[in-house]
Amino acid sequence: MIDFLLTSDALMALLTLTFLEIILGIDNIVFISIAANKLPENQRSKAMNIGLLLAMAQRIILLFFVSFLIGLKEPFYTVNLSWFHAAISWQALILFVGGIFLIYKSTSEIHEKVELPKHDENHLKKKKVQSLKQAITQILLIDFIFSIDSILTAVGMTNGLHPNHNYTLVLMIIAVIISIFIMIGFANPIRKFIDSHPSIQLLGLAFLILIGFMLITEAAHLSHTKLFGNEVGAIPKGYLYFAIAFSLFVEFLNFKTVKKLNK
């Protein structure tokens, strides 16, 4: 286990996944802050911390559930046409549906942030919260919605890293724990940084589109899908890491350029 976690692939996956979990958690922090701010001043920090810790437990439970479904590799249905062949398993089906969901969610989130940036915040502000228990319940419901793309992202980033799926599950859990504790400790500074640099969050959503496409091709590869006699291959995760690193490097250069212009 330790040997696997110290490999370059595992460390790269852990760093990238933790970064994406934090980026994806920004909206979560904003909505949790709105829910907590409806409480008296002395209860707000408590509500946020308890809510995020329970959210972490919720995500770990979801990871176990999704990982169980991903482990079902035996085909339960085979499609065999003259131009199309696929041996569909639960693993391939979950990855395919997850990929479609990530692409849809990312595209709709990008559209909403560009066209209707305050829509969800305004909707949430209208909901009444009268007690700490109600606030934590609302926080958990909000986090459950945001957990879906977070969990699917984790699966996409770690699937196939090791033959033993328990190893990748541990890696995903570590990334979730690190990201949640970073969000607990630096929630406000992170939120302020993203507010002043919204392109970072849009970049994170764009990464989700890449991960969604990778999940779809991974599902096709695992189900031995053939289109017109050509089998669909898997996309090496190194390509994904390079795309993310290159995009962040370009964004860093953009920050430096904007700073110089402002001076």
UniProtKB/TrEMBL annotation:
Subcellular location: Membrane
Keyword NAD: no
Primary location group: membrane
Transmembrane segments: 12-35, 47-70, 82-104, 135-155, 167-187, 199-219, 239-255
Pfam families: TerC (PF03741)
UniProt key word Membrane: yes
Signal peptide: none
GO cellular-component term (any): membrane
InterPro entries for this protein: Integral_membrane_TerC, MFS_trans_sf
Membrane topology: Multi-pass membrane protein
Assigned keywords, A-Z: Membrane, Transmembrane, Transmembrane helix
Family statement: Belongs to the TerC family.
Protein name: Membrane protein
Organism: Neotamlana nanhaiensis
High-level lineage: Bacteria, Pseudomonadati, Bacteroidota, Flavobacteriia, Flavobacteriales
